Amino acid sequence: MLDQENLSDVSNLVSDIKHKKIYNSFDVALKTEDLLEKLILQRQWKSARELMKLVKSRIKFIRDDLPTEATATNVMRHILKIIREEYESASKKKGEGQSLHQLVTSNSSDILDYSESLSSLRSSILDHLGEYKVEIESSCDNIAAQASEHIHMDEMIMTVGKSHTVEKFLKCAAKDRNFKVVVVEGAPFYYGHSLAASLAKSNIQTTVIPDSAVFAMMSRVNKVIIGTHTVLANGGLRASSGIHAVALAAKQFSVPVVVLSHMYKFTPLYVVSNNHEAFNICASPADVIPQSAGKILNDIEVYNPIFDYVPPELVTLFISHQGGNAPSYVYRLLSELYHQDDYDM
Amino acid sequence: MSNKSEIIRKEKVVQSIVIADTFTDEFVPISDNIPHALLPILNKPLVDYTLEFLSLGGIEEVFLFCSVHSDEIKQHVDKCIKNGDGWTLTMKVNVTVSESCQSFGDCLRDLDARGLLRGEFVLLEPGVLSNVPLLSLLEKHSEIVKADKYAAMTLILQESGIGHRGRGLEDILLATDSLNRVLFYKNLGSRKTKKIEFPMDIFLENSSISILHNLKDSHISICSSSVLPLFSDNFDFQTKDDLIRGLLMNEEILEGTIYAHVLQGSLFGGAVSSWRMYQSLSQELMKKWIHPLTVTRNKNRVLKNNVVIGAGTTIPNSAKISRSILGASVSIGHNVTVEDSFIFSDTKIQDDVVITHSVIASNCTIKSDSKISLGSIIGTNTVLENGTVIENALVQSKQPDNGDEYVKLGNKAFELKVSSDDDGDSVLSTTSKKPYRLHITDIESDDEEDDDSDGFSDSEEELSYTQSPVPDDTKLFFSEVIDSLTRGFDDNLLCDNLILEINSSRYAYNVTVKEVNFNVVKAILSMSLREPIGVQYFSHLSRLLSYFSPVLKNYIRNEAAMLDCLQALEDVATSGESFKEKWVIAILQHMYNKDYLAEDIILEWYRNLDTDGKFVEHVKPFADWLQEAEEASSDDEDDDDSD
């Protein structure tokens, strides 16, 4: 219960996200990494287990307060894995080197309890965190660098709404390729408009279409490139609403759907239910039907969901900073990113 | 956006005032036990939503002003701070208590005296639920202030369609100019007014006017620092409406202008000011209209049919519940029906009870076979015996001790009778014409038809209000002038002092120069009529007129004033009081001789007179004489020329 008071760092983060002081996932990831770096550096902890407890309590806090916020918890989960790895290597180093015999004979009863206090642990974790921070910071550029492998001359690319990663990706490709972009405006929020304006400024031939025209346009499109909010454990997406329809249309015309995703967007959780509170957020219906509509509002239910669930079979390829992966490979990426024990808590 | 808000932040702390009490008896009897601010909305105290909204809106310091139940509110806020609720991180909440306050205006006067607020601030009336980004509105207001230094307030209003739940109680009609300055404001309230009269001036003075009618008050306003002193200077301002009306009427004197801002898109604002708004806002909160303020997930369960239940509440299979909100640990018996109702925590409902369109406070026991309907409000701790049937009633657990009428329903159930002559909030009175406390869809449509037939008579009485204050002031001014002059004449005071006195009352009643001239002359003339008619009359009259000659000289300075003076004469002469035959001529003669009136003005006025009236006959001899004199003098001049 002592921890209760000391959660102020994470509650500040939550309040910043709620106040929309930080709103894109990249900033959230960096802030979270910062937060844990400070935690590791400044707080008193004797063993890896204590530290992991501190981190876990923060994950729980975020999960309770912002059930749809995945980036922050993903970053924390990954850092848990880093702590585990560093502890393992540190404790091994103390003893003799790992032999083949040990590798083969080791069984599940040998579970490390992370309770030893190791003097070098703090500095080695911090070193590792430094690397991770660089990875987060360069992730966007690394993804954009792969653009020319995926976008070819005179192709027509369709994208939905606004994503920073997609914007950078397209602009990077435009440096040495000529192609057209069709931006779906993404009602009722119309973020597509600002993306289209930004693309047009960098001399990319851009067309904005309403959501209703997606199917009609799809036959002429060569690739659909989208960003996502989260990649779920089965390879499905939690992406902004309207993307499911686009993905279905793409399936109909066998157009590949390429999803740009940072590593911190991969989450080890499955979708429970499409409209479950932990999965979706419903924004104010006023974006769909105005307050002034009057009497009809007494009799109808209006939902304005922010996210769509896109099943994995509609996604062709994920592009992260490590390169492209198929949805069926997501489970493997997850096991690299997070420790099995931290999947669910 | 964050950049701009940072700039604001550096300059000063963004402040807000929240008034916690409604100062109405709308929420009786529940408000006897639960302060308005802690009224549960979706099983969470109202003030929590308000504070969360302020925090999300970017406010950093809040003054929560309460007068009754202040201890409970204080405890609640302390508890929130201890629990580290979301808003506690970015916002400082000061609970300010003053038990002597009797109205909204009193609270603001008290706050003004404390001098806690610096610069512009956000003012919330009790029970606001909203998702408005306040920082951008504050910025907008300061831009307005830059252009118009007298801007006192920006009203935040929301569009609402006809027939909407939240509509009907707080409809507002506005006329604004092209800069959104409010020229005309009318709170239509719950009365269904069919006719509205606009003052002519607003159309004459402005080239373009927008008339906005589909608005409801969000009860949020952005105020300049001048608002609190305005309340202090005008002791009769009790509510925000008083302030707005006062400012619009006496714009020049009070030096304040009001602007309006209509919320667009998904922005929502409203306040729990009555049970109907309570019902409407609960529904809207549940349906996410006020996103990101929503149902708290960890304690509530949202069921189908728009039902929300708190922790520990059980509903048997045989119960039918729809469009209702049940608190924590409510127990529901078999075959219970609950529709469109609100049941607070720890209440026990036994078998076969029917509850529709009602509010039942916490810790009540409703025994078997009871029927509660049509906007009944049941206070805390009430026990209703088996088979009680109540409609549209207020029930509380204790015997009322203030001599109000009541009916005893049981040992712990007393039905309050609201006297029908209650001229306060019309929603409270129980006469069948008035709307019920909660919005009842089927009955409501009937009501509207009813009102169509008799709506006209209602509107008649409403019409006068825009015009009435002006004549009132002038009348008061006139009697003041008569008083001053009579006293002056009787006590033989210096006329200069009298002029000073008249001028000061002129500013007090805000009368125009034209009206001053008119009324002063009229006052003097009426005084002359008070003397008994006799032989001495004319000598007395000339004594009076010559005594007041400095006053007359002071006011009758130009041609317009002369016309005013003549009009006053006409007014007095035709007002029906008896006067001596030659009185009019005597007056005219006197004024002409003393050079107060020029002869061409008199003649012009005479020509414009209504030829049918008796008054013309009185003036005619004098006018004839003047004309002759003029001809004679012009003849003379001609003669002179020819020489």
UniProtKB/TrEMBL annotation, chain A:
The keyword Glycosyltransferase does not apply. Pfam families: IF-2B. It is found in: Cytoplasm, Cytosol. GO terms for cellular component: cytosol; eukaryotic translation initiation factor 2B complex. Keywords: Cytoplasm, Initiation factor, Protein biosynthesis. The keyword Cytoplasm applies. GO terms for molecular function: guanyl-nucleotide exchange factor activity; translation initiation factor activity. Belongs to the eIF-2B alpha/beta/delta subunits family. Component of the translation initiation factor 2B (eIF2B) complex which is a heterodecamer of two sets of five different subunits: alpha, beta, gamma, delta and epsilon. Subunits alpha, beta and delta comprise a regulatory subcomplex and subunits epsilon and gamma comprise a catalytic subcomplex. Within the complex, the hexameric regulatory complex resides at the center, with the two heterodimeric catalytic subcomplexes bound on opposite sides. PANTHER family: TRANSLATION INITIATION FACTOR EIF-2B SUBUNIT BETA (PTHR45859:SF1). This is Translation initiation factor eIF2B subunit beta. It comes from Psylliodes chrysocephalus. The lineage of its organism: Eukaryota, Metazoa, Ecdysozoa, Arthropoda, Hexapoda.
TrEMBL record, chain B:
Residues 439-470 are annotated as: Disordered. The keyword Iron does not apply. GO terms for molecular function: guanyl-nucleotide exchange factor activity; translation initiation factor activity; translation initiation factor binding. GO terms for cellular component: cytosol; eukaryotic translation initiation factor 2B complex. It comes from the Eukaryota. It is found in: Cytoplasm, Cytosol. Residues 471-636 form the W2 domain. The keyword Cytoplasm applies. Keywords: Cytoplasm, Initiation factor, Protein biosynthesis. Residues 443-463 have a biased composition (Acidic residues). Component of the translation initiation factor 2B (eIF2B) complex which is a heterodecamer of two sets of five different subunits: alpha, beta, gamma, delta and epsilon. Subunits alpha, beta and delta comprise a regulatory subcomplex and subunits epsilon and gamma comprise a catalytic subcomplex. Within the complex, the hexameric regulatory complex resides at the center, with the two heterodimeric catalytic subcomplexes bound on opposite sides. Belongs to the eIF-2B gamma/epsilon subunits family. This is Translation initiation factor eIF2B subunit epsilon. It comes from Psylliodes chrysocephalus. The lineage of its organism: Eukaryota, Metazoa, Ecdysozoa, Arthropoda, Hexapoda.
